[in-house]
Amino acid sequence: MATGRRRGRAIFYLAFILILILVLVVVVARFNPLAATPTQVASENTSQTQPTAQDVVDIVVTTQDVKRGQALSDDLLALVSIPRKDFTDGVFFKDKKELVGARAKFDLRAHTPLTNALVFPAGTSGSVPSFEIPAGKVAISIPISKLSSVAYGLQKGDHVNIIVSLLMVDMDTNWQSKLPNRTGVVIAPGPIGEDQTYVTALLKSPAEYEVSGSEAYSYLGRIEIDPTMNNPVYLLPSEEQRPRLISQTLLQDVVILQLGTLSQTVDQSAPLSAPIPQAGEETPTRAAQQQRAAQQAEVAAPVIPNVVSLIVSPQDAVTLNYLMLAGANLNLVLRSAGDTEVKNTEAVTLQFILDQYQIPNPAKLPYGIDQRIDTFPEFIKPFPEPANAATPTPAP
User: How far is CA 344 from the centre of its chain?
Assistant: First the structure.
């Protein structure tokens, strides 16, 4: 009996000790931070270091380097979170859609926060001409006048055709000089005249060809047989060679970048109406009023452009540069809005006009108009009114 009691008491003590150890383990695991699991520690650290959603805001940044003038696309933009205390409303962009199609004002590095000072909104260029030139195109300026610019009716963005007119002449291929050549008299070398000048050639010409003094040049002529006397006759031209005019469409559907210079703007800073004198102020004198009226007229006068900038291909720019240096005449014709059709045209010469429009060569008649007409008159005289014509009554 004693042995059974001792064994039961030992089992009871052992169970009590095990329960006590288990309770101690639970207490230590619950209240000792060193015994916390890695997941609990990471969760607590994250909640302490990262701000909440209310403390951050998303802004748009670049994902890679962007060149000046490059259009922004969705793949070049990304959203990143910054502390709300570092965000300034109206400066940063929070939506990528607002920037799709916008252009960079400067070269931008990757991960650059985008602001209004760094981009031009989509569809605008901020008056920077280079942003309005498509890739692969260039801009070139040519001079214009009232007649070559559709009476100054051209506007920025209009489409035009360019007509070129050239004056062609015959040239000596060796000397590259205009024909006919000049002639001279070849003499034997030796002293000539009182000053004993040695010459080997002397230019001689009739009186009607003299330029200065008695010695001048003569044009190179040709020999023809006179049909009446059957004798050879040496013919000389009555004047220098007349250039031959030709016109043709050079370029079509060219876009106007700018009419006039970029600085040609009307100054609107000065008021256009005379100020009303206040009480106690002196009324301006007549001379002062006339001076102010002249200044107002000068300010209000429109600026007449003398140059136009065109968007063309690099090769067309070289062609236009050559033609300007060669003295060709360039004329702009305005195209209909939205018309992009390219039509072939024929080069126009005098012969083309006579054939195309059925204009005959006037016959040599045995009669003519009494008054000689060598040039077109500057004005046409009005027709005389009949003597019995009623005087029109002015409208009330």
Answer: 25
Q: Are 163 and 149 in contact (CB under 8 A)?
A: no
What does the alpha-carbon distance between residue 161 and residue 251 come to, in Å, rounded to a whole number? 6
Residue 58, in any domain of the structure? yes
Asked whether residue 370 is assigned to any structural domain, the reply reads: no
The domain that holds 109 is classified in CATH as 3.90.1210.10
For 388, which DSSP code?
A: T
- The CA distance from 119 to 67, in Å, is 11
One-letter amino acid of 160: V
Q: Are strands 307-312 and 244-259 parallel, antiparallel or unpaired?
A: antiparallel
Model confidence pLDDT, tens digit, residues 350-360? 999 999 999 99
Token readout for 27 is: 């207490």
Determine the Cα–Cα distance for residues 134 and 313; give it in Å rounded to an integer. Answer: 10
Instruction: Find where tokens 């005289």 sit.
Output: 381
Query: pTM score, two decimals?
Result: 0.62
pLDDT at 43: 52
Which residues make Cβ contacts (< 8 Å) with residue 204, sequence separation at least 6? 184, 185, 215, 216, 218
- What is the domain count for the chain? 4
One domain, residues 21 and 120: no
Q: What residue spans of 104-234 are helical by DSSP H?
A: none
* Nearby residues of 58 by Cβ (< 8 Å), 6 or more positions away: 79, 80, 81, 94
Q: Is the pLDDT of residue 73 over 70?
A: yes
Distance CA 385, CA 391 (A): 10
Task: Answer whether residue 44 is part of any domain.
Answer: no
